[in-house]
Write a structure and sequence with these properties.
This protein is α+β, with helices and mostly antiparallel strands. It has two domains: about 100 residues, no CATH class; about 160 residues, no CATH class. The chain is about 30% helix and about 25% strand. It contains seven helices and 16 strands. A hairpin with a 3-residue loop joins strand 12 and strand 13.
Length: about 300
């Protein structure tokens, strides 16, 4: 979609010789346009829910709330959280889960720890081998195995022997990967503000338990209670991530102009749904008009945006 958007933007700009936008500038404008549309989803969702509450929204194909939910769900991710230390776990970030988060929706804890260890045998597809393990007495089918190196997880299909487990996913590609195994009895943790978490934990009536865990959000991590939740791979969450920065890439020049090449390693298309192409064009034109100081471009884009909002 990114090449189609760029071609449309350049077609509008070139129609009246307004000016040229470099690939670098286009990518900056594309990033801002995508981010603006993405963040508007949440305001639009709130407005749509309010309309539902006063019964002035549509149903079936006119159900705007459902449409916005689907747009937001494109950015939903479920990942295990990397352990910071003891009962603290890093929140999603490019260095831990590979992407930043916009909204941390759910934090879930595996509350029953089974065992942990290190894979010791050469690669075997969908099999965990640990020569020092005693799986027959500690693990049962249905338990969850987490590879601590990359935080991927799989379900135990069968306990083959004391030292081998059959998994439903191929997690262990290298010898020496650490793992944790938990019973599949996860519970959602309640978010508690930092000002109340101490009071909550000190009360015998409200103290978090393995069945009713709680967490507080800090700068780059969460603190989970009870403190028995302190094993690598024991926490996972569902969050809404930011869209990845779009990048229009090229490798050669033709007639002095860059030629689109999506085979470049840093190529990244827009992550928005295809129906947002018009909105992306409009918003990029707005940024482009400001950059080349052409008021007519901005005015044109603003008019088109008003038309789109009236539909």
């Amino acid at each position: 979609m990114i090449n189609s958007v760029r071609n449309t933007v350049f077609s509008v700009l070139n129609k009246n010789n307004y000016g040229y936008i470099s690939p670098q500038d286009f990518n900056l404008f594309a990033k801002q346009a995508q981010l603006e549309i993405f963040e508007n989803y949440f305001d639009d969702y709130n407005d749509s829910v309010n309309k539902e509450n006063v019964r002035i929204s549509g149903t079936e194909y006119a159900n705007a709330t459902k449409s916005i939910e689907e747009s937001i769900d494109l950015f939903s991710s479920i990942r295990n959280f990397d352990q910071k230390n003891y009962n603290k776990y890093f929140t999603p970030s490019p260095s831990t889960t590979g992407d930043d988060y916009y909204l941390l929706n759910k934090v879930i804890a595996y509350t029953t720890f089974r065992t942990s260890g290190t894979s010791t045998a050469p690669i075997q597809a969908n099999v965990l081998v640990d020569s020092g393990a005693t799986f027959t007495s500690t693990v049962v089918a249905g338990d969850i195995v987490v590879n601590i190196q990359d935080l991927r997880k799989a379900e135990v299909l069968n306990v083959i022997s004391d030292t081998e487990l059959a998994l439903d996913e191929d997690l262990f590609m290298l010898v020496g990967d650490d793992y944790s195994i938990f019973q599949d009895d996860s519970y959602e943790a309640e978010k508690v503000s930092n000002s109340k978490i101490t009071m909550l934990s000190n009360s015998s009536l409200t103290a978090p338990t393995s069945i009713f865990p709680a967490y507080s959000l800090n700068n780059d991590s969460i603190t989970v209670l009870p403190k028995t939740v302190n094993n690598p791979g024991q926490i996972y969450g569902q969050y809404i991530r930011y869209p990845r920065d779009p990048k229009w890439t090229y490798s050669t020049l033709s007639g002095g102009q860059p030629v689109f090449d999506q085979s470049q390693p840093d190529y990244q298309d827009f992550e928005l749904a295809i129906e947002e192409e018009v909105n992306l064009v409009i918003k990029i034109l707005q940024y482009s008009g400001v950059q080349i100081r052409e008021a007519e471009v901005v005015q044109f884009a603003n008019i088109e945006e008003q038309k789109a909002n009236q539909k």
